[in-house]
């Protein structure tokens, strides 16, 4: 198990470096991410290089037995870059420059930025690619975190080239964007600009491509640096740190280029749904690269500094949150950062070594955690442990949250509500794009799948035809990959499998998730006058919001009908046998009780079994191979029944009482070997041992 943190020795005098290494060993640290924001120290001026300090730090870490995840240091250009080359600066929608003084103040598509960054990476790679201390490369940092879109002239030029590469001819682009509307037809690619400040709505098809382009420009920066590292002979794994469900970057497209997925996760102690939301994030990053353990690259030891209010973590929460990552596939646990900063914007952000020193609860927590993780046996790679998938798709996210729709939808919030009903039951879930749905799953939930590509629709239809159980619902199968309606109207791809005909959206007055935070109860919008409908599922009274869609059975069985409002009497929930499987459709967004009832019916219909039957409230459970992780996130001691062996003590486990925030790692073999896709590496753990296979 990797254990460590970001290490920024360039912020501290050399006199403390030996003390850092000594304390790292005391805390159980065996890896650090080094030099993430050190460009100005490595290259204080153009043509001037200073590697002596970095040589010293790396040698000290190596002598202390601490591996180095060496950063390329390109995330924050030094002041001389923008002073000498102002064309590297990004711009906002009005064309005004973002200036230095913070971080990420670079235009990703700027040729000059890429040249300067590339030279830095080349020199680092040539100097350290063969150093035995360097066991991983950290490219950039949180790409797009603070500046996901750049509207500069550099972006303008790159956007035109990107569009020409995608469409080849301007006529093809005009067709894809539907530019005959509002007299937007282009005569050449040189007439196209980024979607800068405009009087009203931009063309939605162009906005979708702009989102794709913006994600691709960040990815190109990563790929440029990765290519330089490989050309210099680097054989270590190469990665960058993701940020979970981060809307601006399509991580599903990035994942094939990562040797190992790394992720930053900061659950908000004030969020009542933080356990669910964090579990979703960890399942998402695990699902991006099946079969390969991932790394939690950043989390906080205690409080962060960037929310309006920043409470610390209650006793035991750090270990419980860490176990959530381990149980869901992580083989590395790291923090931001090692030593708490004395100055700068993040000086109030907690660290492994706090300002108050080693006689602190934080230090005791991180040293105890390091000892516990270090004593764990070798863990199985996360395999095909989930028989349930939730479809989550970035392009759909971009399209469904565009303007000028029947209702405003917070896509992530809706997906989290459906995911939560599975999570509370202790059912393992993969989070995947529709194209990745296959016969390895028994149950698939695809909420609000507004933009549905042909290949994704084909995969979902094959899944149902082959015996799977599918649920989808409002605002699904509406547009193609260009955000255009297909011939025939709505639900043209999934209609036969669903056994319904779609007539109208039936938007409910005031029903909107647009202003809600992630994880909010969608049911709240049902309290708005006129913005709700009622129906009953399996004896459970439910309330729907957002829409009461007008659908007509075309072979489907009506499981539930609306009992109130203008939609009274029309189908609220349908079920259709198709091939060897079945497809369900819910015509509204149910409240929490309704979602729970629908998911309960789906679980029963599909034959899916939880890891532990009748999971007590407050407990979370996850499986990776034969390892089962049980966490008590509640405030009371809870008994859990699990037949197995304690992975830490070797003692037999049948019934265990877990105190608040207590964690149990147990070997509990599954009845049958989990399905292993052919794409899995023979030994995925070698990726975390310092070299690629």
Structural notes for this entry:
The protein has 693 residues and is α/β, with parallel strands linked by helices. 29% of the residues lie in helices and 18% in strands. α5 (111-128) runs parallel beside α8, α10 (274-288) packs across α14 (411-423) and α14 crosses α17 (592-606). The protein is globular.
Relevant terms:
693 residues, alpha/beta, TIM Barrel, Rossmann fold, 2 domains, nine-stranded parallel sheet, 17 helices, globular
Please provide a brief summary of the model:
The protein has 693 residues and is α/β, with parallel strands linked by helices. It has 2 domains: 2-148 and 215-375, Glycosidases (TIM Barrel, Alpha-Beta Barrel), CATH 3.20.20.80; 388-606, Rossmann fold.
Q: Looking at the chains present, what oligomeric state does this protein adopt?
A: single chain
Name the strands of the widest sheet in spatial order: 5-4-3-2-1-9-8-7-6
What is the helical fraction, as a range of percent?
A: 25-40%
User: Per CATH, what is the topology of the largest domain?
Assistant: TIM Barrel
The CATH class of the largest domain turns out to be Alpha Beta
Secondary structure tally, helices:
17
Radius of gyration: 26 Å
Number of strands: 26
Spell out the blueprint of helices and strands.
Blueprint: E1 2-7, H1 17-27, E2 31-34, H2 39-42, H3 52-63, E3 67-71, H4 79-84, H5 111-128, E4 134-138, H6 153-167, H7 170-177, H8 204-231, E5 238-239, E6 241-242, H9 251-254, E7 262-264, H10 274-288, E8 294-298, H11 317-327, E9 330-335, H12 361-375, E10 388-391, H13 394-400, H14 411-423, E11 429-432, E12 443-446, H15 454-465, E13 469-472, H16 495-498, E14 500-504, E15 533-537, E16 540-545, E17 550-553, E18 557-561, E19 571-578, E20 581-586, E21 589-590, H17 592-606, E22 619-624, E23 627-632, E24 638-646, E25 652-658, E26 663-667
Parallel strand pairs: 1-2, 1-9, 2-3, 3-4, 4-5, 6-7, 7-8, 8-9, 10-11, 10-12, 12-13, 13-20
Antiparallel strand pairs: 14-17, 15-16, 16-21, 18-19, 19-20, 22-23, 23-26, 24-25, 24-26
